[in-house]
What does this fold into?
Amino acid sequence: MVHIRQESLSVNHLVARLFVCFLTISLFLIPSSTLAAESKTVVSSEEVLTAVEKVSPIIEEVSMKLWELSEVSLLEVASSKYLKDELKENGFKMTSEGTSGVPTAFVAEFGSGKPVLGIMLEYDALPGLGNEAVPRKESRKDGVTAGHGCGHNLIGAGALGAALAIKDLMKDKKIAGTLRVYGGAAEETEGAKVYMARDGLFDDVDAMLHWHPLNAASVMNIRTAAQSQMYIEFIGRTAHAGFNPWDGRSALDAVEIFLVSVNMMREHVRPTARIHYIIKNGGVAPNVVPEKASVMLTYRDESRAFVEEGVAWLKEIAKGAALATQTKALAVDYYGMYDLLPNTPLAKRMQDYLEMVGLPQYTEEEIAFAKNLQKAAGVEPTGMTDKIQPLPDEPTVGGSTDVGDVSWQTPTMGVLMPAEPEGIGVHTWMATASHGTSIGVKSAVGAAKVLALAGMDILGDRAFLEEFKKDFEKRTEGFEYKSPIDPKIKEPVALPDDMRSHGSVLDLKESFHKQAEDDQFYKNSNDEYPIQNTFAYPG
It folds into this structure.
């Protein structure tokens, strides 16, 4: 196993590349005619960067520990405890654990009063992406099959590092305000932030910061897609497929008709829409007419309203497939997210700080590692990116994040830092390997610096705070947040039974099955097909 050791980043080198003059002035580097002297906090950018460097060993330790644990969504028990322990040991008070019905989510605080600065952590891994930290596909020797292919070990470590650095500065400089850390469990599936948003846990936050590893350096001044996750189940009637098939009604036929119709639907949806699915259950044997069959499906589009239109159409398709096959259907959208709302003043400020911090400086060993990864992936071996992207002009991308729901409740902005080589995408074994090395650690340290710089401005620059809040208010004028999660759903659908606190209240599938066994199921007063739209546990 090749182990790449982290080397200390040269702040002077990075700063000299772009913004040498920034080191000689206060933290609040952006000139403004409206900036009153009393609105500034006397903390220099150099002090902020030094504060992050002091906690960089913690960032490295945490990133490696989370990588080693590699716990998937909703099962991040050890990862969550580890992060909570780190926060408590460093002066944070836990204000919520098992937050909003998610056992591995939490909220921690330091300080009091206004303004309130929020920083979001993520720490769940992906199933099937376990890999040794080597530039080749190699299963982990400890048998762990999950892996941090999206770099949430780095998100957790880097965001934690930023929070620790800000806390230290607040304490040393007696800076007023509240620093709040949100443990955003299960981002890859049923992200806790959506449940937190539904519970109003961001209502008093003045600004929220986050980051994500990628193969590029950029401010996340983008719009991600809104989405809904759906469960479609059909129930037919079993029979011997050879002896008496006429007595059966195939639920699999209904699934097939449903999916064919969904793919015909693609021709007529907006170019920004995305539809993807799996067949979760298609029967048990070819000579048995399938009594039950089910589909898991995700619908995405550029806005929440467009997603809801698509979901309504999908439910109609399920109804039609059931009618065509004389089966019965259950169609539920059990989880969803909003699109990500940008914020121009926050984005510009973070772009300035990203350019100040600059790119990580890599050793020859790290560059060789990156190139070998690229060779293994069939990508041109160029190594790590050598440029910072200009500020994006709010493009819409196809992916989704539960940060979207946060962004519609409080001004929110994030940054991307390179943690894998150019041409290597997240959600791959190559990304898992890279995120388990010093390449990933340097990404987390760099992100922590950008977050800490921006965070100190949010706490101390009242004119800046008013500016980005005004942008937020303009973008959300007339908007009222409505959670995409059905109010009957108190905790994530995929939560294991032994981790539930609400018992079987969420599992309505049994009720549906009992209804389906009743011959009167079809016979309502209007002779209208009774498709069910209530929640059911998808499994």
Observations:
- The two ends are 39 Å apart (CA to CA).
